[in-house]
Design goal:
The chain has 19 helices and no strands. The protein is mainly alpha-helical.
Length: about 400
């Protein structure tokens, strides 16, 4: 988050940073040697023109060391303030206060950072009230003031964001965003809403994050800023990956990579980050597919088990019905029968008839809707009743006795 928020501050201060010739083309060592001769006494006796040049040199060193040596950057910011405060050059004051505030913010000394950011806002108020400087003897336009105020509001929003005071951060972001909207600074608003999306994503509010990333994309598109279109799509890709929508995530990440791959030298870090998100999304997709495949296999096995169970249940019910019928027939046969008379049940007669026609036990089972075991049981019973040894004798004896 810190990297993205810093980008917002740097972008929002772009107009203010160009308000003077900052000598950043000069070698920092040679510039330091040039200002080293200026002792406090020499500064006190310098002309306004000399003070103007010296203040600009100090600010150039402040900017030059901003990313490589925070201590030196703050040192030269204070040197610049030594001149600009006495001369009431509020633009130079605001500029120095801004960078000192940023360095305190980077150190997580948030109270000190807020003091300097608020001092910067006071300078802007004085500029609006009519304060001038050697570089702007006619004062400042509303566009200048809006640019500097939006930057300060964005920086303070970042500060409260780092303090995890999200409601206050959002208030300052909204104020900055209104100024961006007023002046048609769509790229600045794209950066702003991307930061807001990152914040909500970290807070776990995915719905708010989605809205913010979408607005970032809309503003980037309106600005025809292909870089921030790609960055916003990267944010949406990361969001949808977090929500488990890997297909949708990969769509946005692939679209972002189309830009980063063409600008690989300039956007190597962004492309690497985007590639990492794509790799994670692909891994999640593979995991999801693996789980779906495993679930399908389990479902098929379960379905096969259910079919087998139902088949067994039907068979068991059938056997129970057949057994009940056999028991009923057996009970009926227990009673006394006329001497020499062989009593056959209707089922026994049917089976005997089919046996005489050459049907096998499986054929009879299928014809009568009974199990093979039941048919074999009936055949054994018939053989016992007619006191024979096998099926052939059974059929022969049954014919002799007129049973078939």
């Amino acid at each position: 988050m810190r990297k993205t928020l810093t980008l917002l501050v740097a972008l929002a201060f772009s107009l203010a940073a160009m308000a003077y010739n900052d000598h950043r083309g000069h070698n920092l060592d040679s510039l330091e040697r040039a200002v080293a001769r200026w002792t406090p006494d020499a500064i006190d006796n310098a002309s306004e023109e000399e003070l103007t040049d010296l203040n600009m040199a100090y600010r150039a060193l402040m900017l030059g060391y901003n990313q490589i040596n925070a201590e030196k950057s703050m040192f030269y910011a204070r040197k610049a303030l030594y001149i600009s405060r006495r001369q009431h050059w509020e633009l130079a004051n605001a500029d120095a206060y801004k960078y000192i505030g940023q360095h305190f913010w980077a150190r997580e000394q948030y109270d000190s950072a807020l003091v300097y950011y608020e001092k910067g806002l006071e300078c802007i108020d004085k500029m609006e009230a009519g304060a001038t400087s050697p570089s702007r003897p006619d004062g400042y336009t509303q566009l200048d003031l809006d640019d500097m105020r939006s930057a300060q509001f964005g920086a303070i929003g970042n500060l409260y964001n780092s303090m995890v005071d999200i409601p206050r951060a959002m208030d300052f972001y909204a104020t900055a965003g209104a100024l961006f909207e007023k002046n048609g600074w769509y790229t600045s608003n794209s950066v702003l809403y991307y930061n807001i999306g990152e914040t909500w994503l970290e807070q776990g509010d995915l719905k708010a994050a989605e809205k913010a990333y979408a607005k970032s994309l809309d503003y980037a598109t309106a600005a025809s800023d292909s870089l921030w279109v790609a960055v916003a799509k990267k944010g949406l890709g990361r969001l949808y990956m977090t929500r488990g929508k890997t297909t949708k995530a990969l769509k946005y990440l692939h679209e972002a990579d189309e830009y980063f791959s063409v600008h690989d030298k300039e956007e190597a870090v962004s492309r690497k980050e985007n590639f990492e998100y794509m790799s994670l999304a692909l891994d999640e997709q593979r995991k999801t597919l693996s789980w779906l495949l495993a679930g399908l296999v389990l479902l098929l096995l379960l379905s096969a088990g259910v079919v087998l169970l139902l088949s067994r249940l039907r068979r068991s019910r059938k056997v129970q019905e057949e057994t009940a019928q056999i028991m009923e027939e057996t009970l009926q046969e227990i009673g006394p029968a006329p001497s020499g008379v062989i009593q056959l049940s209707d089922r026994e007669k049917d089976i005997l008839d089919l046996l005489s026609k050459g049907y096998t036990a499986p054929d009879i089972a299928e014809a009568l809707g009974l199990s093979n075991e039941t048919i074999r049981w009936y055949r054994k019973k018939l053989i016992a009743k007619l006191d024979v040894s096998n099926t052939a004798e059974l059929i022969s004896t049954a014919k002799d006795r007129g049973l078939i």
